[in-house]
Amino acid sequence: MTATVILALVPIALLIGLGMLLRRHGFLAESFWGQAERLGYYVLLPALFIHGLATARLDGVPVLTLAGVLVASTLAVALVLLAIRPRLGLDGAAFTSVFQGGVRFNNYVGVSAAAGLFGLQGIALAAVANAAIVPTVNILCVLVFARFGSGGRRAPRAIVRQLLLNPLVVACGLGIALQATGLRLPPGLEPTLKALGQASLPLGLLCVGAALDPRMIRTWLRPVVIASVAKFVLMPAVTILACRAAGLHGPAAATALLFQALPTASSSYIMARQLGGDAPLMAGILALQTLLAGLAIPLVMHLLEGFTA
């Protein structure tokens, strides 16, 4: 089980490293990176979310219980981070990066690990996890950016408008609507969205690597630790309590715990760049969480054994 997760993390680390090398050696024009981030945010990531949510197979899965556990644990950790924010000593933009590092997850690793653990059942469980957490974290993060991002506090009407127009939130809504109504993506559109969505991961991770500045590691240390404790300690602990309270067990509980112990996703960097967060810090959190996950997830895997019985 541990090997499955580690193998899923390796290409992420390699793509981040490649992005760092490409920018450091000037292989691509400096203007490329900003345009790549824009492409990812407005086109590739929305395609990924629409396709993934619309085509998920949910047969035989405890959808409501699993989704409830995931949403409840995500909201609980989000509330904890908001409650302790005044004591963290971080400016608003830096807090948005810590917040994303604490609640976002890398669905690429999650789907790969769930499929490796539970086969076709794991894919169905991963689909429910994505359907529950993706819209939840995107709405939460947009709200946090609207309140603490570098653009300053926005009026309630502006926040609602930002939510309604956010491409990731809109994509989640479309994907869930297609899933709920049973409508299928048109034959030509389905593979197009799939291809665009698959391109979001490598491009996003290259942009993350390009934004990394090793000289800032000492400055990043404290917020990286805070985000990683929230992600690898607090989130799994809250998820275990939620599973117990809801009576969720077996592969469904294991999948919930697995997804809530994943490192943050490349979309967190894209959002930080587009919505006024601390993008360099976000890149640092993402890169270091990916490395820490190689140690943290095997520990969580040990806990999974109690849920799979």
Notes on the protein architecture:
With 309 residues, the chain is mainly alpha-helical. The protein has a single domain (2-308), classed as Na+/H+ antiporter like fold (Up-down Bundle). It contains twelve helices and no strands. It has helices at residues 2-24, 30-54, 63-88, 92-103, 107-148, 156-165, 167-181, 189-211, 217-246, 250-259, 266-275, 279-308. Helix 4 packs antiparallel against helix 5. 51% of the residues are buried.
List the keywords:
12 helices, mainly alpha, Na+/H+ antiporter like fold, 309 residues
Q: Please give the CATH architecture.
A: Up-down Bundle
Looking at CATH, which topology would you report? Answer: Na+/H+ antiporter like fold
Q: Specify the CATH class.
A: Mainly Alpha
Q: How would you sum up the global shape?
A: globular
Count of all domains: 1
**Main sheet properties:** none
- The count of β-strands is 0
In round numbers, the mean pLDDT is 85
Helix content, binned percent: over 70%
- From the alpha carbons, calculate the radius of gyration and give it in angstroms: 18 Å
Task: Determine the strand fraction and express it as a percent band.
Answer: under 5%
| Sequence stretches where pLDDT stays below 50 over 5 or more residues | none
Q: What string, H for helix and E for strand, traces the elements in order?
A: HHHHHHHHHHHH
User: What's the tally of helices?
Assistant: 12
User: Structural class of the helices, strands and pairings?
Assistant: mainly alpha
